Amino acid sequence: MSTLYHHHHHSHKHATHVPVAPVLEPPPLFAVVAKHIYRFSFIELDAASYPFLRSLQLKKVILLSAERPSKTLTTFVEQEGINLTHYGLTSERDDHENDSNGANTQQSGGEASLDPLDGFFGSASAISKSIISEHTIKNALQNLLDVRNHPIAICDTSGMHETGVLVGCMRKMQSWNFASILVEYRSFAGSKSRAPNERFIEMFNISTPDLPPERHRPSWLQHAKTDRANGR
């Protein structure tokens, strides 16, 4: 009888050792923007977050800050075969100087442009020289709104400002009302929200980005376009 009891007790002891799957840790300020579109801050990004990012099976990462990506981030995207597009951060004045000098670098917001609409946000840029440029936003949106680049992630050092402006402009293209766009922007920026960024989003002309062919656009963009046409 004692032998049977011992055997039962021994089996119960081993049954407590159940393997537990590791918990994936998202990057700072991580959020889902839309289907297959994500955002995060890379300023405190460490190795613990890379398994989570790997699980997203990203094709492209858009980096909007002027700061160069960390060595660990560049190593990660290279190992995973992810395309890293670094637009950087420039003021409108810098964009115009690049245009006049014929500059053509991704670090200063992409290819040089002679588009007269590039001065559209001059008033906002005069308030803050560090505001992200319209030219950069247009280029980033072209990547963001092309499903061939999905899954895709947007990041900057803060995870609030440049990313917040890009997401806010995308929300306008989704036909969000401006009050809702501000709520989302401020939910990330908090007390660090910037009036010039909010003004930038408010003034953004949704007709300026060159969209990919219709078959390569997200389905929600088609719905938003239909809603605008129907006056919803």
TrEMBL record:
InterPro entries from the UniProt entry: PFA-DSPs, Prot-tyrosine_phosphatase-like, Siw14-like
The UniProt record lists the keyword Hydrolase: yes
Stretches for region Disordered: 91-110, 212-232
Key word Transit peptide present: no
Comp. bias intervals (Polar residues): 100-110
Superkingdom per UniProt: Eukaryota
Listed GO MF terms: phosphatase activity
Keywords per UniProt: Hydrolase
PANTHER family attached to this UniProt entry: PROTEIN-TYROSINE-PHOSPHATASE (PTHR31126:SF18), TYROSINE-PROTEIN PHOSPHATASE (PTHR31126)
Protein name: Protein-tyrosine phosphatase
